[in-house]
Design goal:
The protein is an alpha+beta fold. 30% of the residues lie in helices and 28% in strands. An eight-stranded mixed sheet has the order 6-5-14-15-16-13-18-17, sandwiched between helices. It has a six-stranded mixed sheet with strand order 8-2-1-12-20-19. The structure holds flavin-adenine dinucleotide (FAD). Flavin-adenine dinucleotide binds next to helix 1, strand 2, strand 3, strand 9 and helix 9.
Length: 421
Amino acid sequence: MRERMRKPKAIIVGGSIAGISCAKALILAGWDVVVIEKTRGPPTGNPTGAGIALHPLSQKIVKSWLHQPDLLHNITLPLTIDQNRAVDREKNICRVLARDENFNYLQAHWTDLHSLIYNTLPPEIFFWGHLYLTFCISHDKSTVNVKAKNLKTDEVIDIAGDLLVAADGSRSSVRQTFLPDSKLRYTGYCAWRGVFDFSENENSETIQGVRKAYPTLGNGVHMDLASGTYTVLDELMYKRLNWIWFISQPEPQPKGDSATMKVSSDMIKKMHQEAEKIWVPEFARVIKETKEPFLNLIYDCDPLTQLYWDNVVLIGDAAHPITPHCARSTNMAIADAAVLGKCLERWGPENLHSALEEHQSVRLPVTTKQVLHSRRVGQIKLGLPTPDREPFDPNTASPEDCEILKQRSLPFFDDVPSILE
Ligand SMILES: Cc1cc2nc3c(=O)[nH]c(=O)nc-3n(C[C@H](O)[C@H](O)[C@H](O)COP(=O)(O)OP(=O)(O)OC[C@H]3O[C@@H](n4cnc5c(N)ncnc54)[C@H](O)[C@@H]3O)c2cc1C
């Protein structure tokens, strides 16, 4: 029989995908939770962010959190094809490098996925517009006290709990407390990104053209590689195309804490001109007609050697900042949350450290390998030097060289932790 009568309480910092997934998983495990999030409110229908490719395990987990599991299909499109092609505009050649026709992902818009999970949670657990400041652990290490500032009133509040979950993203200030020397690593490249909304013009020449050039659009993820650069193109629900274009460049001057750079109309114009030179004209046209493209600086972090300290645990991007080449960050965040919930349920609040130890032993080997694999895939696709192979050239690469381009080559790709079975 459990010794305590009161429900254990977790304080989650961060209300993005990792934070709300964790809130869901912990509530199901019998915990009380509060979520501290600095943004003013839940994201609404506006197109914040872009495409999230959900792995079958994430689909299973998210469905288990919904009253009506099929709701996931209402906000997603199937991704059944994972294709990489070499594009050489000078010679007018497009050659398939690697194609997986048994890809079983679903493509969601970030905001839609967030809303789907968020709507299953009691709204009163959220402290929107609150900036996490610090925490302190009691002498007997049984409780944790968190200070957060209400950004509207400047009032500082104290919240006491049994567990602090840091879901505060790749620049996690909680991680910084334990690992002041752990720095994000600039990868050497940036990504232009955009969402092309064609809801008001479904039959435009641009859309007809791009559908002809990519006949499996709406059904797969399409990666085009040219020398030292590559793009990703896929379709989202509600008549939108999601695209990303990775380009090598030295690290621009960091501006504040954001990995998104402000771009000038001059930069956008130059980007359009380059797109016309490198990519198939139908895709270049989509890029050109996309409103408000933005530029992300791409970082990751050397894998950590631990995920928890006393009663503080890191999850999601706070635990393992990763490059986006293998569509992992959201999938990892969802798996972290589900595993943490199951470990806490299995061990009960009186054995918190055993639960956190088990969570770490399940997640750390997987996330470590996946972060390093994703880093390597990025280096290969961008033709950057790697310690053990010649820079990849899509125009001369052999089929064996191209195997790594498939998402399926990711370590632990089909792995389902036994605690989730
Ligand atoms: C607006 C947005 C759009 C995104 N779009 C995409 C996309 O299109 N494709 C994709 O693959 N990934 C996208 N991502 C990233 C993706 O959601 C995450 O990489 C992944 O889901 C892991 O999520 P996370 O919750 O660990 O981290 P994040 O999504 O980075 O969330 C961290 C959260 O913590 C909050 N936070 C940080 N510090 C504090 C503090 N001191 N006090 C209070 N709150 C704090 C942040 O406001 C944020 O909500 C997006 C993230 C965001 C926030």
